[in-house]
Here is the input.
Amino acid sequence: MKPLKVSQVQPITVYLEVSDVFEVSRMELLDFITVLSIFLDNAIEASLDSSTKQVNIALISGETKVVIVENTIAQESIN
Here is the structure.
């Protein structure tokens, strides 16, 4: 995976992994894009509070389709 730069103002490292052709078949493409966009916006916003500012995205094709969006967060202390 190669990192992508999301913004020049707030640099965030983004890793994208696509295992194969990822076809959206069980929902409308526009609905899928809307949901993915919301996930990415939330991940980017949360990663801004962390020191590493990183978002990982994986689109995995197989018998079922899997979408993974991970992000770094500000460290929280547990009492």
In short: Residues 19 and 60 are 5 Å apart (CA to CA). The mean pLDDT is 85. The two ends are 36 Å apart (CA to CA). Strands lie at 3-5, 13-18, 54-60, 66-71.
